[in-house]
Amino acid sequence: MAVPSDIRNLLDELPEEAVVLDVGGWAATDPRADWVVDIGPWETRGYYHTHLGDKAVSTARVTRDTWIVRDISDSAPWPFEDQMFDYVICSHTLEDVRDPVHVCREIARVGKAGYVETPGAAIELTRGVESPLWCGWHHHRWLVSKNANQLNFLFKPHHIHSPFWPAVPSPKLLKASAAEHMSFRWEGTFGACEDIRVDFTDLDSRLQSIARASERRTSPRTSARRVEESVWNAYRRARASVGTALSRSRR
User: Residue 202: CB partners within 8 Å, gap ≥ 6?
Assistant: First the structure.
């Protein structure tokens, strides 16, 4: 994936001897990367330009020997020494993987500085990105946000795809800031944690607050959101009542 211009300039200005790791670089390896770690094999690298028609970029710095095939969420440490890399790139990968917190810890362990990018949380609560039938991208597992020097991962639950859930109905209705990618620059080290929400009401309130805050205030949909939220809450109560009644009838 393309990185912002300031990161591109930083990478291009690194001295020749600086060593760069691309985490999850199988689909579109950064041209400055010297190493790649990804579950995708060397033989099928470059998926975006070979299968999706994107413009190919030179990856001459990476060789078969510096292409490490592995599940980056595996609990074992990556096969790299501490601070082996001068810079680590991880672009549009963390939202896909099973354990992004572990991946972040390994990135911070093996790198001296780096750049992380994911879709913003709001786009994952928006219909029409891939299909009007679901929110965001079908294969993404996490809503990613940042604060200070830490990344936060909130599990993307299935119920947001319900037609009754008050999602943002189209990317066109997102505020410009909400439609932007989540960009995170770090140096030295950084933190990562899962935002664990056990109570459904707490979780759903958090998700709805993200959706409400990200929709353009000038949108005609804004006035309809309260109605949608009322319908969603009524649907939940009715479903719970039916479930309770069915449970009692089976006793």
Answer: none
Other Cβ atoms less than 10 A from the Cβ of 34: the count is 17
Helix H or strand E encompassing 91: strand 87-91
Closest CA to 157 of 149, 147, 165: 165
Residue closest to 198 by CA, chosen among 138, 157, 162: 157
**The CATH number of the domain covering residues in 5-246:** 3.40.50
Is the full-model pTM beyond 0.85? Answer: yes
Under the banding of pLDDT at 50, 70 and 90, the label for residue 49 is low
Q: In terms of Cα–Cα distance, which of 200, 190, 201 is closest to 111?
A: 190
Helices (H), the chain: 5-12, 47-51, 100-110, 176-179, 200-214, 225-249
User: Rounded to 5 degrees, what angle do the CA atoms 203, 208, 105 make?
Assistant: 55
128-137's contacts with Cβ under 8 Å and 24+ in sequence apart are: 128/169, 128/170, 128/171, 128/172, 129/171, 132/169, 133/161, 134/161, 135/160, 135/161, 135/167, 137/95
Total residues found in the chain within this entry: 251
Q: How far apart are CA 23 and CA 37, in angstroms?
A: 5
Number of Cα atoms under 13 Å in the Cβ half of residue 205: 6
Q: Where are the domains of the chain?
A: 5-246
Q: What is the pLDDT of residues 2-27, one digit of tens each?
A: 899 999 999 999 999 999 999 999 99
Q: Cα(192)–Cα(52) distance, rounded to whole angstroms?
A: 32
Q: Give the single-character DSSP code of 57.
A: -
Cβ distance 122 to 168 under 8 Å?
A: yes
